[in-house]
């Protein structure tokens, strides 16, 4: 899950693969909490999965992202720090996709004050640096931008950088599914690398 600007998106359902399901069950048991919502995103309609094999004869429409408004989730704009809003708004003005990701999403939904805000965008890191001259690209293994807004550092990562990083542990169930657009696939892969209980 991710918040798009001030909207919220999640996949209505994802293709079922045994390994992510097992991984999900392992993480849920490990934490000893009930996250029934996590299962709902992975379970296929019964007629599509037979003995853990996708039935190719069943025709279905491509899956779509379901967007929730911040209001539907009880998130007010004032919950997001002013420097973060400035970064989100500036990237959106330049017509880039931009999302809040990670723990801040969970904290906002639970009405907690996030300790920091992480942003991901469709802009390349060098484009982010052009938009925010006070920005520094840091990290060799996983480069991100530190955008300095009024003495507050906002971490901005790029979908393109995320794609270049190897998907360790995800290669067995990360194949692009038929009918899945490139942008949906990028969002899905990025969510798989994040905390499942929040970004399922």
Task: Write the topology of this structure.
Blueprint: E1 2-4, E2 7-11, H1 18-31, H2 36-40, E3 49-50, E4 53-54, E5 65-69, H3 82-93, E6 98-101, H4 103-109, E7 118-121, H5 125-131, E8 135-138, E9 144-149, E10 152-158, H6 159-164, H7 182-192, H8 196-199
Parallel strand pairs: 7-10
Antiparallel strand pairs: 1-2, 1-6, 2-5, 3-4, 6-7, 8-9, 9-10
Short précis:
This protein is an alpha+beta fold and about 200 residues long. It has helices at about 20-30, 35-40, 80-95, 105-110, 125-130, 160-165, 180-190, 195-200; strands spanning about 1-5, 5-10, 50, 55, 65-70, 100, 120, 135-140, 145-150, 150-160. Residues about 15-50 have low confidence and may be disordered.
Taking all residues together, what is the mean pLDDT?
A: 71
Name of the CATH class: Alpha Beta
Strand percentage = 15-25%
pLDDT under 50 segments (min length 5)?
16-51
Provide the helix percentage: 25-40%
Tell me, briefly, the overall form: globular
Task: Report on this structure.
One of its GO terms (molecular function) is nucleotidyltransferase activity. Residues 98-199 form the Poly A polymerase head domain. It holds the Pfam family PolyA_pol. Belongs to the tRNA nucleotidyltransferase/poly(A) polymerase family. There is one protein chain. The chain is α+β, with helices and mostly antiparallel strands. The protein has helices spanning 18-31, 36-40, 82-93, 103-109, 125-131, 159-164, 182-192, 196-199; strands spanning 2-4, 7-11, 49-50, 53-54, 65-69, 98-101, 118-121, 135-138, 144-149, 152-158. It has a single domain (2-199), classed as Beta Polymerase, domain 2. It has an 8-stranded mixed β-sheet with strand order 5-2-1-6-7-10-9-8. β9 (144-149) and β10 (152-158) form a beta hairpin. It is globular and about 45 Å long. It starts with a strand and ends with a helix. Residues 16-51 have low confidence and may be disordered.
